[in-house]
Specification:
Chain lengths: 99, 248
């Protein structure tokens, strides 16, 4: 089982990072912009009528670094909860065996 | 490494290379302001019954088994983590996964709609990712359509006696993929003034689908890994939920 898990993780990394090395000129840009480009293509008269709350408060676009910080916080919260609960489960299993 | 594992590695590599030639860009949630008002409201209204069902299903589960709240928190956290990771894809742009498959398998699709809504709200307000006006449409695609497909596939696989891990993989991966198909459909429905609905759908699908395929596979694998962990360490909970059979 350990081997399967390790193999699975290796596969995940391969799928995720091979494109980075293969596609050297690609931008790997944020996705939101691309969607808007296609909207423009198929519906040229359409004007977006709202902007994100945060950007309205800031009066401009969210700086890239800050955005990555916020995404990290989101990941951190999630990982924290998963790690905490998983840790409890693992310890509990040990404890149940002793009984 | 066994032969089988080597084969999987080679396959994954070949797959990534084969797709590595199509440079393109992609999108994830529908952006703020990118749906006309009437569509925003329509999708929002469509979500309401699912959210109510979800709320009741969560309440019922927790009333029956109080200790399942840990598993619920875990499914929610899983969506949080997975949907925050933007991963470079073979089309030369980044996209992220949904992570709703795990929750759908464990708690049923309705419950996930609540968890998904929380994540989407967080992203819309703080990350300028997705949006409040398009919240209804995004909730429908990511937190309702995707999980329902995941759950359906899982149940179907169980009926057909497919290996549980394969079932989990298929459920998570196809649910993820379907989410993006629905998003493409939603965009095409709202934006086809210059072409037909079909042509618009094709265009949106062309950006979403190829980018999302490898990510859907990753999501499937991650979900299986987490599921294996739960199978080992959270047997009592899984039994209470009826995922594992009583007393093996």
């Amino acid at each position: 089982m350990k081997k399967t898990v390790i193999a699975a993780i290796v596969v995940i990394f391969l799928i995720a990072f091979v494109p980075l090395f293969v596609l050297k000129d690609a931008e790997f840009g944020g996705s939101d912009d691309a969607g808007s480009v296609v909207v423009e293509e198929v519906d040229s008269s359409y004007e977006p009528w709202a902007t994100p709350v945060f950007e309205q408060l800031l009066g401009g676009e969210l700086p890239g670094e800050v955005e990555s910080l916020l995404f990290c916080i989101q990941t951190g919260i999630g990982v924290g909860i998963i790690a905490f609960i998983m840790g409890r489960f693992v310890e509990r299993k040990k404890w149940m065996k002793d009984q | 490494m066994s032969k089988k594992q080597k084969k999987i590695l080679v396959l994954a590599g070949a797959f990534a290379l084969a797709f590595g030639i199509v440079p393109n860009v992609s999108a994830m949630h529908i952006m703020e302001g990118y749906l006309p008002g009437s569509f925003c409201i329509a999708w929002g209204v469509l979500c309401v019954p699912f959210l109510i069902a979800g709320f009741m299903s969560i309440k019922k589960t927790l009333n029956e088994h109080r200790n399942l709240i840990t598993m619920l928190a875990m499914s929610g956290a899983f969506i949080f983590v997975i949907s925050s990771l933007k991963i470079p894809s073979v089309t030369g742009s980044c996209s992220h996964m949904t992570g709703t498959g795990l929750g759908a398998i464990l708690f049923g699709p309705a419950a996930v709609s609540i968890l998904g809504l929380i994540v989407l709200l967080f992203q819309a307000i703080l990350l300028a990712h997705g949006g409040l006006t398009t919240l209804g449409a995004n909730t429908f695609s990511m937190a309702i359509a995707g999980p329902f497909v995941s759950y359906g596939i899982y149940v179907l696989c169980k009926k057909m006696n497919v290996n549980k891990r394969v079932a989990v993989f298929l459920a998570a991966a196809l649910g993820d993929l379907f989410t993006y198909c629905v998003t493409a459909g939603q965009l095409a429905l709202a934006h086809n003034a210059d072409t037909t609905f079909g042509a618009a759908l094709g265009k949106f699908m062309a950006i979403f689908a190829p980018t999302q395929v490898p990510l859907a596979i990753i999501e499937g694998i991650i979900t299986v890994v987490i599921f294996m962990g739960l199978e080992t360490y959270a047997k009592p909970e899984l039994r209470a939920m009826g995922i594992l059979k009583e007393a093996k």
